[in-house]
Design brief:
The structure holds 2 protein chains of 2 kinds.
Chain A lengths: L11 E5 L3 H14 L3 E5 L2 H11 L3 E5 L7 H10 L8 E5 L4 H9 L4 E4 L7 H9 L3
Helix pairs in contact in A: 2-3
Chain B lengths: L11 H34 L5 H18 L5 H14 L10 H16 L5
The chains are: A alpha/beta, B mainly alpha.
Chain lengths: 132, 118
């Protein structure tokens, strides 16, 4: 069976999102559609720590979180040499053009939008990161 | 992943079933977000929406917009986006818009309560 967006490599993805339901659906998608390993964090601070410990292949980062939000978390990740090179994809429900331009200007690899389709999320990530 | 441990993707049916189980686990929390929108619409009607209420309503609408479409409720996402945009304004919506806000919120609640599984 050929799965669009998957390849022979197993990937490790860190999801940083304060919403339980989003983390669960992301995990379901990445684990069962693509066979990737998923690590989860429910806050920016926890995500920064997990990223340094686990060195994932990519990070899915929510924008709106209490405390350290997505952009602040991204800056922390870039400051640390251990995590500076890990590709980050922002995950947001904001659809306005001004928000999208602001997020793209941060220097993230890509901006993905909520709601996402669990069946195609891995292929969106693969396309954005050139993993196909 | 070696040849003996070849990954087999889950079927659409299995994923749909897993999503239904997640929906059932999170439905109460999702309806709590709708309750925040109910309270905000009532406060708009009474001319008593505070900045804190408005921010809470904006956050609740934002979360609903991001969540509902993942569970095949894209129309719910669109309605929630409209509410998010309304509550994102710097001032409270006028009392004359209360009826529309109540209507949008009620429609979201109905979509959630009648979502079909399977």
């Amino acid at each position: 069976m050929i799965v669009e967006g998957s390849d022979d490599l197993s990937r490790k993805i860190l999801i940083i999102d304060d919403e339980d339901d989003i983390r669960e659906v992301c995990s379901l998608s990445l684990e069962t559609v693509a066979g990737w390993e998923v690590i989860k964090a429910s806050s920016g601070a926890q995500g920064v720590a997990r990223a340094a410990e686990q060195r994932p292949d990519a990070i899915l980062l929510d924008v709106m979180m209490p405390g350290m939000d997505g952009p602040a978390t991204f800056r922390e990740l870039r400051k640390n040499p251990a995590t500076a090179a890990i590709p980050v994809l922002l995950l947001t429900a904001k659809v306005q053009g001004t928000d999208q331009r602001r997020f793209a200007d941060l220097g993230v690899e890509a901006v993905l939008f909520k709601p996402f389709d669990p069946l195609t999320l891995p292929s969106q990530i693969s396309r954005a990161l050139g993993w196909n | 992943m070696g040849d003996s441990d070849q990954f087999v993707p889950a079927t659409d049916e299995a994923i749909s079933s897993a999503l239904d189980a997640m929906w059932n686990r999170h439905r109460t929390q999702i309806l709590e977000r709708v309750a925040v929108l109910d309270d905000a619409a009532a406060a708009v009607a009474a001319g008593k929406l505070t900045a804190v209420d408005r921010e809470a309503a904006q956050a609740a609408a934002h979360k609903l917009a991001g969540t509902l479409g993942m569970f095949n409720l894209m129309h719910g996402t669109e309605l929630a986006r409209e509410l998010e945009k309304t509550y994102a304004q710097e001032s409270a919506p006028p009392a004359t818009s209360a009826e529309h806000l109540v209507s949008l919120t009620s429609e979201i609640r109905i979509l959630i309560e009648t979502r079909k599984t399977g």
